[in-house]
Amino acid sequence: MKIATVVGARPQFIKAAPVSRALRARHQEVLIHTGQHYDLNMSEVFFQELDIPRPDYHLGVGSGSHGAQTGAILQAVEEVLFREKPAALLVYGDTNSTLAGALAAAKMHIPVLHIEAGLRSFNRKMPEEINRILTDHLSRLLFCPTATAVANLAREGITSGVHLNGDVMYDAFLFNKQLAKEVQLLAELGVKPGEYLLCTVHRAENTDDPGRLQAIFAALNQVAQPVILPLHPRTQKIIREQGLEGALGSNIKVIDPVGYLEMITLEAEAGKILTDSGGVQKEAYFARVPCITLRDETEWIETVEAGWNLLTGTDTDKIVRAVEEFTPPAKQPQVFGSGDAALEFVRILENSF
What we know:
- By secondary structure, this protein is an alpha/beta fold.
- It is built from 16 helices and 13 strands.
- The strands form two sheets. It has a seven-stranded parallel β-sheet with strand order 3-2-1-4-5-6-7, with helices on both faces. The chain has a six-stranded parallel β-sheet with strand order 10-9-8-11-12-13, sandwiched between helices.
- Helix 1 packs across helix 16 (341-352), helix 4 (96-107) packs parallel to helix 5 and helix 7 (168-180) packs across helix 12 (260-269).
């Protein structure tokens, strides 16, 4: 069976690694990289570290407004699908690459397979929320990482083709965590395990609002522990354009985006993690590190209900109190499956076609 896969952003590369391994053992995969993330540290390094097959097509779309980027990806993916004529198109998550790929396939009557289906933040101001809702409603097979995701789809009337198969990011985390232990990074940064905070900020709701961004940085400068901040290129550009360099402060150590193995190391050894990233929230959970989410809602509500993730929004005082006081319970429910989600995906796929 020939399956075309669309990826374009860092989290999708991570998810694609275990799925491509499982899929290519029995089937043909045509890998389409849209170029949504084109920076070396946001793209190329992940293909190298995770041993992802080289893309068959690199569309080179790059950055742009949501409409321009989505339209460019849709047109380019459509051309590939005309040429390759796959049995189905696989997409991941909630990016513009996800929606554009799903739209191109659906209009050509090619079945859409959506890994990480059913996530909802219930905030339609987030472009990711629009992307995931529309992609779910276009999909033939929907692969849900958690029972909550299955229930979300049912509330929207989607029950056909829905499968609970676990989280492929957990597969990737388990596969790579031993390699991550070999990474020598903390000494280079001058920090010790458990004695620093790790922070990532890239969501539009935070980066497009200078007030929210300044409130986050104010909190990071008030906490006792040093903060490691791998800075997303988009966030870096906005800081420069808004003249916010001075808000970063001496307690924040800004570094370039890091590879996946380095990121796992930073996550696993942090005292706490502060983030607005959905993927980092999960990786914090996998690593059993308390997570403080710099948003007003999350699509990973399971981590909050388990007591390992605390929502603070961008309120400076709430963030500081969370760093000082937030302690998760001793027990952690296993809500993301058992680490075999990619193999389960292939099994379901074979039984469905």
